[in-house]
Design a protein that fits this description.
Blueprint lengths: L1 E6 L5 E5 L4 E3 L22 E4 L12 E7 L5 E5 L4 E3 L5 E3 L13 H8 L7 E4 L12 E7 L5 E5 L4 E3 L5 E3 L33 E4 L12 E7 L5 E5 L4 E3 L5 E3 L14 E4 L12 E7 L5 E5 L4 E3 L5 E3 L14 E4 L12 E7 L5 E5 L4 E3 L5 E3 L31
Amino acid sequence: KGQITRFVDAENPEVKLDDGQLSSFYKADVQALPEAAKPAALKVGQRVEIIGSVTPGGHKGKKGQITRFVDAENPEVRLDDGNVASFYKVDVQALPEVSAAPTPMPTVAAQAAKSTALKVGQRVEIVGSLTPGGHKGKKGTVTRFVDAENPEVRMDDGLTASFYKADVQALPEAPAPPTPTAPGVPLPPPGAAKPPAALQVGQRVEIVGSLTPGGHKGKKGQIIRFVDAENPEVRLDDGLTASFYKADVQALPEAPKTVALKVGQRVEIVGTLTPGGHKGKKGEITRFVDAENPEVRLDSGQTASFYKADVRSLPEAPKSGALKEGQRVEIVGSLTPGGHKGKRGQITRFVDAENPEVRLDDGTIASFYKVDVQALPEVAKVVELKVGQRVEIIGSVTPGGHKGKK
């Protein structure tokens, strides 16, 4: 007796006999034996026994697990002795699966974990040994998928390895908070945390997981961009910038929204998303470098562009009356260069619709941004002037240095 290995022509087979010999036979000399009951279809991860010797190597009687298929039907098997070899399908018989009858009924949580599809960020346990390395029994987190179904896992011991899906079992997720409608369950206390909002650029976040290497758990920072559809790059408060898996990042509660920013507004730098160490400084917005991010002239004299998230508007000073020619004013801001803050003078004209030219009391004439100029209280009006009237020169808008003369 033996097994047909191939056909040497249209009808005459080559047979590998059970005594090990390989010979070609005329069809008339060969009679088919009744087929044994067909085993279940083979699949990756299945325990099998080598029952034939069509495949060379002397592996008959050995057991192992199927790791992959080398073609449509012939499997590669990792034998229990450590060898990996490809076998003809006829040499391989599936072993009965271990019955779950003697074991206790699995918990609802375990059943849910088994049925849940794997996903990035999920906690898993290595339950098989199809993947080499001796990791069975270890736990970790899925970091990515190396193909359509096989995950890469960062284990709790720090090692990262790719695993066959059959070796990996999802662990039960942390129980969800009880619903208020469940009988006997109290309502959540007032102010209980709500699910975090979707992440966005400029948002303050905390690193709450360790899926991303680097030991950043517990640190805080701001999102500066997204490296792909969901995973952010974060500038941490310690100055480091790193990309994180979304599962490691939790949005922090937003601060109360401030007034919309505008040119000439007094602001304070409240964040560190923009490099330079300007947090805590104050200044005035000179322009916008794009739709929302301002350039600020700091009170220290520096001018820099800032991310909107770093800038908070300061309360506006009480508005003064509309400016007009001849009005006495004080320079109250430093948006206009020249160091004139604190000086006084009179408006001589307007260089455009709102920004005045001022003749300062020290004789200097300069154009100022409107926001730098504050009208002084008007002096009591004098009697209407007329020809022959005695007068005193009290201003210096008129050139000649006659102030104080009568």
